[in-house]
Design goal:
Blueprint lengths: L1 H7 L3 H24 L9 H21 L8 H18 L2 H6 L2 H30 L16
Length: 147
């Protein structure tokens, strides 16, 4: 998703931030998993925060940059933003939730599942707005952001 935002972002400084963040995040996570391979089998809070932080920031970049323009990916960005914020908040407590009884943690996991459903709904809405059946596209290739 970071590469998607890198592609549609027009601001040079924001693109540079996204690019370097993705490179550094990948290197940090690779080194972490090489040193501590046991992190594959439990919640890794560093991975959760690093992976979702770029999505939150990049979706804010996109929404801020397109406040006075036509938004081609508004529903997608809002869905990603809402999903990432909810996902971070739920998964930050993943190790704790795994230890408590299912009955007590059920509502929190239900909230996470709801956020995933919301994210997929926003993607579906965005797809129908851009490529839906029996709809004449209201955009052309030249209107799309930087390639």
């Amino acid at each position: 998703m970071g590469a998607f935002y890198y592609r549609i972002c027009r601001n040079v400084k924001q693109r540079k931030f996204i690019k370097w963040y993705l490179i550094c995040m990948t290197l940090v996570l690779m080194i972490q998993y090489i040193i501590y391979p046991s992190l594959f089998f439990r919640y890794n809070i560093v991975e959760i925060i690093l992976g979702n932080y770029v999505l939150v920031i990049a979706s804010f970049f996109y929404l801020y940059n397109t406040t006075s323009e036509k938004r081609h990916f508004a529903y997608l960005s809002l869905g990603i933003l809402l999903w990432a914020v909810l996902d971070i908040s739920v998964l930050m407590f993943g190790n704790v939730l795994a230890m408590i009884q299912i009955q007590e943690s059920g509502i929190i996991w239900l909230m996470r599942q709801f956020s995933v459903l919301l994210f997929h709904t926003m993607i579906l809405i965005q797809w129908f707005k851009l490529f839906g059946f029996n709809s004449k596209p209201d955009h052309s290739e030249k209107d799309w952001p930087v390639r």
